[in-house]
Hints:
Bound molecules: ligand TXE
CATH architecture of the largest domain: 3-Layer(aba) Sandwich
Helix content: 25-40%
CATH class of the largest domain: Alpha Beta
Structural class: alpha/beta
Number of strands: 24
CATH superfamily of the largest domain: Aldehyde Dehydrogenase, Chain A, domain 1
Radius of gyration: 23 Å
Strand content: 15-25%
Distance between the termini: 57 Å
Number of helices: 14
Amino acid sequence: xxxxxxxxxxxxxxxxxxxxxxxxxxxxxxxxxxxxxxxxxxxxxxxxxxxxxxxxxxxxxxxxxxxxxxxxxxxxxxxxxxxxxxxxxxxxxxxxxxxxxxxxxxxxxxxxxxxxxxxxxxxxxxxxxxxxxxxxxxxxxxxxxxxxxxxxxxxxxxxxxxxxxxxxxxxxxxxxxxxxxxxxxxxxxxxxxxxxxxxxxxxxxxxxxxxxxxxxxxxxxxxxxxxxxxxxxxxxxxxxxxxxxxxxxxxxxxxxxxxxxxxxxxxxxxxxxxxxxxxxxxxxxxxxxxxxxxxxxxxxxxxxxxxxxxxxxxxxxxxxxxxxxxxxxxxxxxxxxxxxxxxxxxxxxxxxxxxxxxxxxxxxxxxxxxxxxxxxxxxxxxxxxxxxxxxxxxxxxxxxxxxxxxxxxxxxxxxxxxxxxxxxxxxxxxxxxxxxxxxxxxxxxxxxxxxxxxxxxxxxxxxxxxxxxxxxxxxx
Length: 476
Ligand code: TXE
């Protein structure tokens, strides 16, 4: 059901899509196949709600958003099971990461908005300037399938906290947690029309959001190809745009690293969520003097990762999100072989006994023997597939790392402080981790360079994105 004007309603055209459970390879629910008419309804509701919500004291807005966070915490198990069923990720991961982070997103922006300051500048003895930040109006939030509730709340929380009203569309591949979230909003007493969740496919419902003249800003996370389409529509309409797109992130392991820590975390950064995280380190570069030892250990631990039923607490690698995505990932393994790569482990679809026998499972895969400019090392695969390459010098590995059209994140493993700073300064990535991965402080700006995105999410950047700055200069 859509959540429009505070109610759970069917799409006007009464058209629905099958929602497939990727671990079982069969439909388990229906999702509205909404169109421009539903987006119009949602936008009108958001417009009606805007004055009341934006004028509400920020402490009151904050309290409602924190109440929603409390309800997410209360329903953690149910939401984690829904996330795992929808997306194929191990339920253990959803319980440990996705759902707690969704709650944290709501709390972080609900409390941050209270401390969101305006600025003043005294110009000599002649003038006083003050700058206000007011909510832009009705905004569109479009989120992807890989971290469904995590990235959905990452967008709507700052928008709501800033005083905007929202028309949001989750991915049609993973609608369930957004639907359950709608019910929590109703229970928390979120005023009607403040948040409207319209389900459906991108080219129809998503496109209708992007092109609606009364939706003044778009926050999008998804593929670079889709990001280009959205920018093409929104730019001529002078809409504010935040695009968080794909990545092909380098993971650089120097010989002077903490070997066990680098190895252990590189397994996580390669295969968490079946490699379906835009921040995964899918290109591993290892200094030649430790290359053989690293590859041997890495392959051995990769081969031991259990691919299985996402609802089984022992499972490390769950199902890929869809049959189409599974075939896309397998096609890249085939491409790697054609480009001269050597598959050291994995590379095949996995048949799981029991309820998951028709699911979309792929072995975690390690490939060596490729150059840094081949398609396998240039294009985002977004699955449990990594390549490993040796390097000899810093300049060489920095060149490799910066050689793709993406620039989202990078990881550096070294115990040499000077080297860490020196290499980090030269990497063309928006987010760089040294001796860690996915270690997040929500106050920091989040986003990529080059084709990995436009703008930054997180912290004040996100609140500022959803507000309009106005400077008033008073001559004294
Ligand atoms: O994302 P899409 P997909 C990458 C990853 C993946 C590729 C495509 O490589 O294989 O993108 O994934 C909506 N107007 N990432 O197809 O299509 C769509 O309904 C408006 C990285 O799932 O970008 C969904 O809600 N909206 C990324 C959302 O956009 C449109 C995470 C994302 O869908 C639209 C996900 C349109 N024309 C995929 N077309 C990351 N950076 O984390 C689609 N949508």
